[in-house]
Specification:
globular, seven-stranded mixed beta sheet, alpha/beta, 12 strands, Metallo-beta-lactamase, Chain A, 21% strand, 287 residues
Length: 287
């Protein structure tokens, strides 16, 4: 458990493969706990809540970095019996409201009883650069816009007496194949340029999937996306979707590019969305 400043410690709950290895972070301050992102499935959300109870301090706030269910699904359970603010940037809050029902319709039948019974939405919308002070910790929200999801953001946390660190959501995956099915790979590449410049040489980044890293993680994500896009460009040959044979070839190539990495099913899942994006067909994107 890293100690990040005077009276500030960080706990992490990480789901298994079924829950996409998503990280939820519990920042323990002198007065309570701040949760960043909240997991996907009921079993993991229950384990996260148990971890929160074990810390032995009240929940003070929840932050959601971006508009994907593996990050916002647990808000409903965590806040059901606690009157706490749920923070997100304005763009992220709007996107969650737009997609939550569609995601439930898409994935609820797949996961069955593991899908949460309800959705709790952000209650406090933050402007780009707006700060929140909680228990000796300052969190600054940074709006990114479409990237890995339809609306992404990251948080810079500055503890009293300590060095700043950042929660980057899914702007870069560490050691797993990424989700690309929202079809914003070009915007994602541009976002990586922005966040690399903004975070400079910050040495502690906490991603939504994978182990903590430094800003070299952004270069790794950039290389992956560039390779993924070029493979799809060649395999699609101008079409808005790939054939099954082309998708299988894509998976072989990306598995070789990132050997041993989990979530290989993500490779084919996003292939058509990126083919449509490269062709300029926005209607091919999954909402």
């Amino acid at each position: 458990m890293p100690v990040l400043g005077s009276g500030i410690s960080l706990h992490t709950y990480t789901a298994g493969e079924t829950g996409l290895f998503v990280n939820s972070y519990l920042i323990e301050t002198e007065s309570g706990v701040v949760v960043v992102d909240t997991n996907l499935l009921n079993s993991d959300i229950a384990a996260l809540k148990a971890r929160l109870t074990a810390v032995g301090k009240p929940l003070e706030a929840v932050f959601v970095t971006h508009a994907h269910p593996d990050h916002f699904n647990g808000v409903f359970e965590l806040t059901r019996d606690a009157d706490v603010p749920v923070y997100a940037t304005a763009g992220v809050a709007k996107a969650i409201e737009e997609i939550a029902d569609a995601k439930r319709a898409q994935w609820g039948p797949v996961y069955g009883e593991q899908w949460p019974a309800g959705t709790a939405y952000p209650t406090v919308e933050l402007a780009d650069g707006q700060t929140v002070d909680l228990g000796g910790l300052t969190l600054t929200a940074h709006e990114i816009g479409p990237a890995e999801s339809h609306a992404d953001s990251y948080l810079v946390a500055t503890p009293g007496g300590g060095q700043p660190f950042a929660f980057i959501g899914d702007l870069a995956f560490h050691g797993t194949h990424p989700y690309t099915n929202d079809g914003h790979s070009g915007a994602w590449l541009a976002a990586l340029d922005v966040i690399t410049a903004e975070l400079g040489d910050m040495s502690r980044l906490y991603p939504g999937h994978g182990e903590p890293a430094d800003t070299r993680l952004f270069a790794d994500q950039r290389r992956y996306l560039l390779h993924y896009r070029e493979l799809i460009r060649r395999l699609a040959d101008g079409a808005p979707a790939l054939t099954d044979l082309a998708k299988a070839e894509l998976e072989r190539a990306l598995t070789a590019f990132l050997p041993g990495a989990p979530l290989t099913w993500m490779i084919q899942l996003g292939a058509d969305a990126i083919a449509a994006e490269l062709r300029g067909d926005a209607d091919g994107r999954d909402r």
